[in-house]
């Protein structure tokens, strides 16, 4: 592992962390691999064999395989997984060069783990210390995310991959099957035509995230036009449906799902997770009745957002098509509903403070007319049509 900053700490604290902290023993990881835990990553050096002094709890291990310097040294897409470690735990893995992935099956070999534990002092010079300079940040990003929620959300494969592993929806095994498909050797007259010619793909089984499904129709079956309009303005019905189906016993676990999606995007580079985070945030911010009923959920939401928004540049959320800030328009609804009748006084004050904080830090204007965020008309290149 390359040199890292080690936080100055009391020797007694360091000793206790060494004795009580968990250890990741990662053998045969190729030189140059980018490897990290939680909010910190390094390039693997020639002596690296793992990470020590890891505080017990939930952690995100992530890594990117790398070509050798003679082959260009390019870094591959990121892979990650959530692991839960107990005091003094030893988690053992070996690098599988064929799969370019870590194989954790050695952790099931009790004899091998016992041998590693007995020789931990000899292994110590090859173990990098957990980056305690980021522990506060990591805890603030995952304080609502439990081991159970993370396990239920991550793919059955156990791996979170920056690039989706997809396969064709239709397996074209015979020449006749392929001949019946649309030809793609002629110029497309429109974007729609081009999209129709692309093969339809689906995620490989076991690689899909198991997120809560947000209903497209945010109103009950048989709703009247008036009810449909009301449920579109106040999406509490859809929110309650999501909570009942996915987090009925622990509604605050929805905040854990938001944190899971955000970490997988921020650290794991999974854009799909960012889209899910946006969908959850939009649903929560546009549920007026739920805000009056679920004080603790919305107090928690403000806390979660406070830490998440401190981790990314404010202009990241600007929509390149409409030139509008997704967060400004979404949080504008949250602050408007929080100031309405029937909202708990503590929640109202917390929302006001959060609004003032964002206005000061990011210069976002939550009091601007929504017409200011109308889409900007753009000129398409000649010959390109959008249906």
Word description of this protein:
The chain is α+β, with helices and mostly antiparallel strands. The protein has two domains: about 120 residues, Substrate Binding Domain Of DNAk, Chain A, domain 1 (Sandwich), CATH 2.60.34.20; about 180 residues, Serine Threonine Protein Phosphatase 5, Tetratricopeptide repeat. Helices cover about 40% and strands about 15% of the residues. The protein contains 15 helices and twelve strands. The protein has a five-stranded mixed beta sheet with strand order 8-7-1-4-9. Strands 3-2-5-6-10 form a five-stranded antiparallel beta sheet. A two-stranded antiparallel ribbon has the order 11-12. Strand 7 and strand 8 form a beta hairpin. The longest helix has 18 residues. The chain is globular and about 70 Å long. Interacts with PRPF8 (via RNase H homology domain). Component of a U5 snRNP complex that contains PRPF8. It holds the Pfam family AAR2_1st. Component of the U5 snRNP complex that is required for spliceosome assembly and for pre-mRNA splicing. Keywords: mRNA processing, mRNA splicing, Spliceosome.
